[in-house]
């Protein structure tokens, strides 16, 4: 991606509106009327709309409230006939299922859903074809539940440090979808996080990894999980750090 594309804001967390959600100036906001019902029902409606918008963009850039929005973005890419590899920057594994999750939090399941494991209601509802685990690289994933970790280790998904992302991608020239959960950054440099994970790479290390991906010329689309609480007094620092990371993927050389 070169040149900053117009961003699309999806100010929702698991189908619930996030008040005060912050995105870049001039971004288009996706706010469809969602039906009553379960989180799955609301997200199906939301991600069908997101898929339509992504399918119409050459290089989609999506800001969302958590890590579920890539489901809609990937469905939109598939509508265009694009089958990307995926790089997933995250402090968490996002590989839980209903059988492994200690918390019952559906927002910890999107990667498992994408490869066809566990909860598939949303996948089926938006028409997303599952993606082979070998086409997915997850960077960091330092905070993983015990059974989730076992499943992830056996899945075929490649788990690497941020410096190893580019080398772990399939060597086939395929386009790449980058998902960036900003909680991958150490909490002292990415404050106000809803689910902070101790330790983690510095902002500069994540930025360098994103720059390497950009220089490859393979990045087609980006989703950004803005997983900080906009009501927190230190949210402004998180917004600035997020802007810096996104710029490393989208700014002109």
What can be said about this structure in brief?
This protein has 253 residues and is α/β, with parallel strands linked by helices.
Q: What is the arithmetic mean of pLDDT?
A: 96
- Rg to the nearest angstrom? 16 Å
Poorly predicted spans: none
Measured as a percent range, the helix fraction is: 25-40%
Distance from first to last alpha carbon: 10 Å
Strands, total number: 10
Order of helices and strands: EEEEHEHEHHEHEHEHEH
Main sheet overview: 8 strands, parallel
Describe how the helices and strands are arranged.
Blueprint: E1 8-10, E2 12-13, E3 16-17, E4 28-29, H1 39-55, E5 61-64, H2 70-79, E6 85-92, H3 110-114, H4 121-126, E7 136-143, H5 146-153, E8 158-160, H6 165-168, E9 176-181, H7 203-216, E10 219-225, H8 235-250
Parallel strand pairs: 1-4, 1-5, 5-10, 6-7, 6-9, 7-8, 9-10
Antiparallel strand pairs: 2-3
Helix pairs in contact: 1-2, 7-8
Report on this structure:
Helix content is about 30%, strand content about 20%. The radius of gyration is 16 Å and the shape is globular. The protein has about 250 residues and is α/β, with parallel strands linked by helices. The protein has an eight-stranded parallel β-sheet, sandwiched between helices. It has eight helices and ten strands.
What are the defining features of this structure?
single chain, 253 residues, 8-stranded parallel β-sheet, 8 helices, globular
């Amino acid at each position: 991606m070169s040149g900053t594309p117009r961003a699309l804001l999806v100010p929702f967390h698991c189908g619930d509106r996030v008040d005060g959600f912050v995105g870049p100036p001039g971004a288009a906001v996706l706010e469809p009327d969602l039906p009553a019902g379960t989180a799955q029902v609301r997200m199906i409606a939301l991600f069908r709309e997101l898929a339509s918008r992504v399918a119409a963009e050459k290089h989609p850039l999506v800001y969302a409230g958590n890590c579920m929005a890539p489901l809609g973005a990937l469905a939109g890419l598939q509508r265009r006939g694009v089958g990307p590899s995926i790089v997933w920057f995250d402090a968490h594994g996002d590989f839980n299922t209903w059988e492994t999750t200690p918390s019952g939090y559906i927002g910890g399941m999107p990667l498992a859903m994408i490869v066809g494991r566990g909860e598939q209601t949303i996948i089926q509802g938006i028409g997303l074809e599952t993606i082979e685990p070998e086409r997915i690289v997850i960077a960091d994933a330092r905070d993983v539940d015990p059974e989730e970790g076992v499943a992830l280790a056996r899945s075929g998904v490649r788990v690497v440090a941020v410096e190893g992302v580019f080398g772990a991608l399939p060597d086939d020239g395929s386009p790449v979808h980058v998902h960036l959960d900003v909680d991958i950054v150490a909490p002292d440099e990415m404050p106000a996080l809803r689910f902070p994970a101790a330790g983690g790479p510095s902002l500069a290390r994540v930025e360098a990894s994103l720059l390497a991906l950009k220089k490859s010329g393979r990045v087609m689309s980006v989703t950004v999980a803005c997983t900080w609480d906009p009501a927190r007094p230190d949210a402004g620092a998180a917004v600035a750090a997020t802007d810096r990371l996104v710029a490393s993927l989208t700014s002109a050389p």
